[in-house]
Design the sequence.
């Protein structure tokens, strides 16, 4: 499939639009939060009872994000306004990704709609096309476009809403058809924040970490790394020692292992001491010989660029080796092969969207449909429970269990900083009691963490319980 990369001139257009959108959305959300009295010690007298309830809930959500409530009841709104702005803009932007790829599904009729059809429907419903598209996207992808997200308890003013809609509408079609646009989207959203953090020279903590460490890996880098890893494995499996010894040239070798949709342009061969060709990176002999036993984990997956590239390599390989249809191969690659972790919850959601989009667009795979559960989780979610509550979640047998679980509590409290560096199986807690026993206790406790909701199977940015399973 290999959707084209975004040309540099369009990349610049996308960057300018996103940075304008962030400025507009953050000002509009901050203005509305101030009108509602969210940062103030008391609610303004003019608020209705409904608005007072929204204010209370927004303040609670802001503290959950990390905004500080002062001793006099005033409260910061920096993190809250940033999140609400992100949600308002990206719901519109990602809805257009669905529209332009024929994947925005009418909730009643179950068919994809064009923008013209969306405009007609929205006129009849007395709303804007983008508001309607956003609500339909919430139905399709409830984890990524959460209709119950606090962002949508508030309305941006009409001028800000119109400006954001204009920015979405003016982006060229090619932006939404390129294979790497979703990766650039988040990097450009973070660009100003990254510059601010770097200029401040503050010590990098959990609040600053995502902004300064999200670096998009360009398509040629992904291709080089995967061609010389998975591609090298494929060459060894496909050719065998005889063909490697007798091949007249690298081009002949590349021709012999050719596979539709998998060009392997960056795969390199060298000659060994016996004058036999070998993949320059080795043949990965310790890897499984069967792809149904092959597992890959991207420990810092960002927007899912490596995952999408792996999907596009593994699907034709499995079709060839196992005689599968495109749909069967896509489903098995998602359920058996691909695993990912990421520190930044927004990136986890973005990676799930990116991978789902690629699975739906894969030729002859069936278009929009329910997908298998994606093994993508956020490794940067800290525990919300206090230590005393954490301890009450277990029926403990013996001193060692209590000590081990206290150690794990301290470790997962630091998850927003440590992320994928956590390895529960090598934790000192696992030296006290067997990992199988500790794992069961840990999973039961983490499932109580309110970080992931029940959503449509297959497009789920999962939480701490799944992250602990993948980390182990």
Sequence:
């Amino acid at each position: 499939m290999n959707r084209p990369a975004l040309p540099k001139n369009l990349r610049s257009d996308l960057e300018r639009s996103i940075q304008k959108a962030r400025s507009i959305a953050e000002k509009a959300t901050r203005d509305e939060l101030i009108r509602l009295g969210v940062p103030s010690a008391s609610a303004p007298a003019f608020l209705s009872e409904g608005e007072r309830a929204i204010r209370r809930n927004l303040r609670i959500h802001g503290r959950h994000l990390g905004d500080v409530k002062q001793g006099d009841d005033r409260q910061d709104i920096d993190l809250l306004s940033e999140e609400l702005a992100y949600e308002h803009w990206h719901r519109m932007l990602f809805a257009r990704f669905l529209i332009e790829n024929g994947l925005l599904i009418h909730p009643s009729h179950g068919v994809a709609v064009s923008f013209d059809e969306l405009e007609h429907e929205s006129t009849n419903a007395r709303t804007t096309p983008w508001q309607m598209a956003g609500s339909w996207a919430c139905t399709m992808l409830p984890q990524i476009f959460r209709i119950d997200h606090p962002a949508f308890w508030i309305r941006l003013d009409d001028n800000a809403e119109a400006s954001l809609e204009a920015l979405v509408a003016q982006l060229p079609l090619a932006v939404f058809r390129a294979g790497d646009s979703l990766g650039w989207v988040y990097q450009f959203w973070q660009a100003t924040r990254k510059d601010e953090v770097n200029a401040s020279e503050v010590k990098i903590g959990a609040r600053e970490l995502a902004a300064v460490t999200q670096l998009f890996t360009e398509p040629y880098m992904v291709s080089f790394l995967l061609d010389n890893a998975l591609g090298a494995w494929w060459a060894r499996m496909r050719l065998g020692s005889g063909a490697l010894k007798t091949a007249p040239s690298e081009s002949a070798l590349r021709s012999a292992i050719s596979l539709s949709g998998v060009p392997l342009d960056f795969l390199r061969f060298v000659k060994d001491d016996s004058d036999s060709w070998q993949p320059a990176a080795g043949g990965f002999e310790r890897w499984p010989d069967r792809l149904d036993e092959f597992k890959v984990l991207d420990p810092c997956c960002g927007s899912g660029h490596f995952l999408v590239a792996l999907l596009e390599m593994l699907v034709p390989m499995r079709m060839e080796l196992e005689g599968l249809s495109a749909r069967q191969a896509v489903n098995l690659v998602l359920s058996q092969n691909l695993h990912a972790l990421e520190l930044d919850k927004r990136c986890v959601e973005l990676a799930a969207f990116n991978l789902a989009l690629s699975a739906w667009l894969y030729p002859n795979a069936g278009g929009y449909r329910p997908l298998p559960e994606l093994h993508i989780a956020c490794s940067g979610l800290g525990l919300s429970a206090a230590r005393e509550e954490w301890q009450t979640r277990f029926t403990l047998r013996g001193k060692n269990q209590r000590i081990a679980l206290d150690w794990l509590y301290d470790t997962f409290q630091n998850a927003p900083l440590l992320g994928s560096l956590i390895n529960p199986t090598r934790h000192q807690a696992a030296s006290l009691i067997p990992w199988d026993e500790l794992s069961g206790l840990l999973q039961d406790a983490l499932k109580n963490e309110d970080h992931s909701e029940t959503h449509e199977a297959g497009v789920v940015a999962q939480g701490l319980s799944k992250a602990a399973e993948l980390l182990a």
In short: The CA atoms of residues 190 and 211 lie 6 Å apart. DSSP finds 20 helices and five strands in the chain. The first strand starts at residue 269 and ends at 271.
